[in-house]
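// run 5 | inverse folding | seed 20
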């Protein structure tokens, strides 16, 4: 059999509540401080939201996407990548994104006229799609990926994942498979989301998933997550393509796994079966035993049910001493962008010689039987398993390794 194709992550662009780039993100994680702040006037809309993790308000929107915060964050992240990708026909774009960032004003103008009683008339809207209408325009999930490909002159495949909080991890998994098949030799892969706006906040308030004061993953007092804005784009290449371009790995992308719980729309399987399955598949794809994992970047939202289910899955699969962290108490839950943002954070910390802790977890819950790493620790892990678990029971896990790691 031919030797497996080695896949490298060679560049990372990221935007979070800490600011633009890996440096402020890694500094915040090393210090163990939260990026959560009181919402701004443009976000709060009289809603009872104590804090959000907002990216800088000064980030500009690209032409044609005025007012679209998600796309603004994406292009800011992409600007941090190399300008010349060479052989543009061999570079694909694989992104995960979430629900529309349509404003209340756009809803009133573009959607409300198509409500009859409490029923939304899709046929009425379809007959009245103004080409520049905000709401219909915003509800095309793939438009951000196509815009990024067009801006870079890339002629490879364009793929968009719309699988809730697992979306960007699934997009990265799809890019990995395309690289292995030889369909492309490099890929821009990641995710974007910005739900810290009135409509997004109201949605999560209705679901009763937001924290009252602080996001506390795996803590006995946890009561929900903090919303975060974010985007991350990774340049992922075959080792041969990267070496030809003079690039070295920031991390090695070893494997990916996905699954679906088939249990409930907004709750995971209570024993974490889907999470266990996706982690097992990711390790099998990487050709590694559970004992090889040096740290888990957990999805760890800070919700009572979610953290319990994920911890049971981790405890079932991995040795009990395996350190487990969640960075959502620090950067917030960036929803569809979470998988990419957290993988970027893991890679940045790895390159800076440390592993993140779990901000705001002070009293680990005995009902979550994992070894929660409370504070950042010096020393880069060799192999990290990174989890993303979304509504609908959609799960994705990624396995990365330090550039110097040897199997």
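// decoded
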């Amino acid at each position: 059999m031919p030797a497996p194709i080695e896949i490298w992550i060679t560049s990372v662009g990221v935007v979070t509540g800490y600011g633009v780039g890996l440096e402020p993100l890694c500094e915040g994680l090393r210090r163990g401080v939260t990026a959560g702040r009181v919402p701004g006037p443009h976000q709060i809309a009289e809603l009872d939201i104590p804090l959000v993790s907002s990216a800088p308000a000064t980030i500009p929107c690209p032409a044609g996407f005025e007012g679209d915060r998600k796309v603004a964050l994406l292009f800011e992240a992409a600007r941090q990548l190399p300008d010349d990708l060479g052989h543009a026909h061999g570079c694909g774009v694989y992104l995960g994104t979430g629900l529309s960032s349509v404003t209340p004003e756009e809803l009133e103008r573009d959607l409300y006229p198509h409500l009859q009683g409490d029923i939304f008339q899709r046929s009425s809207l379809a007959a009245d799609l103004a080409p520049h209408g905000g709401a219909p325009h915003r509800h095309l999930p793939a438009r951000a990926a196509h815009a990024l490909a067009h801006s870079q002159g890339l002629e490879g495949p364009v793929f968009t994942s719309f699988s809730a909080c697992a979306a960007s991890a699934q997009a990265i998994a799809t890019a990995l498979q395309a690289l292995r098949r030889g369909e492309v030799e490099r890929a821009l892969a990641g995710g974007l989301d910005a739900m810290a706006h009135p409509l997004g906040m109201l949605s999560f308030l209705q679901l009763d998933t937001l924290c009252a004061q602080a996001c506390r993953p795996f803590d006995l007092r946890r009561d929900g997550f903090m919303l975060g804005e974010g985007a991350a784009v990774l340049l992922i290449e075959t080792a041969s393509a990267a070496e030809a371009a003079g690039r070295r790995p920031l991390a090695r992308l070893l494997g990916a796994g996905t699954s679906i719980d088939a249990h409930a729309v907004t709750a995971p399987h209570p024993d974490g079966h889907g999470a266990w399955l996706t982690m097992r598949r990711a390790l099998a794809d990487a050709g590694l035993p559970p004992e090889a994992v040096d740290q888990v970047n957990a999805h760890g939202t800070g919700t009572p049910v979610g953290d319990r289910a994920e911890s049971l899955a981790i405890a079932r699969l991995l040795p009990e001493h395996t350190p487990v962290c969640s960075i959502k108490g620090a950067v917030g839950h960036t929803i569809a962008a979470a998988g990419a943002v957290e993988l970027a954070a893991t890679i940045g910390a790895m390159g800076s010689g440390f592993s993140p802790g779990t901000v705001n977890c002070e009293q680990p819950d005995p009902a979550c039987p994992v070894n929660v790493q409370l504070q950042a620790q010096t020393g880069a892990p060799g192999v990290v398993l990174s989890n993303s678990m979304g509504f609908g029971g959609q799960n994705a896990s990624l396995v990365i390794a330090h550039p110097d790691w040897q199997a």
